[in-house]
Specification:
about 90 residues; alpha+beta; about 15% strand
């Protein structure tokens, strides 16, 4: 007899969501500080923190990384671009 496990994802509390976003923001700051953000022809490219050969495009507050695609909220790559804007005096 085999058991099957059913996993139900619960919604995050507001506090859990905010904590996760703070972590993403801190990781985005680290990506920016490490020089992982590049702008080319109006698009931003952010090198993956975990895979040096992976680069994600960030444009219009959206990112092509799996985290953003799954959650549809700012990921660490979007935050890295926001830090780029702040550091370079660019208005979004």
């Amino acid at each position: 007899m085999s058991l099957s496990v059913v996993s139900k994802k619960r919604e995050l509390t507001r506090e859990e969501f905010e904590t996760q976003q703070q972590v993403r923001e801190a990781r985005g700051a680290r990506l920016f500080e490490n020089g992982n953000v590049c702008m080319t022809e109006g698009s931003f490219f952010v090198q993956s923190e975990n895979h040096a050969d992976t680069i994600y495009e960030v444009q219009g507050g959206k990112c092509e990384c799996p985290d953003f695609q799954r959650r549809q909220v700012a990921c660490k790559h979007v935050f890295a671009v926001e830090f780029y804007f702040l550091a370079n005096g660019v208005n979004q």
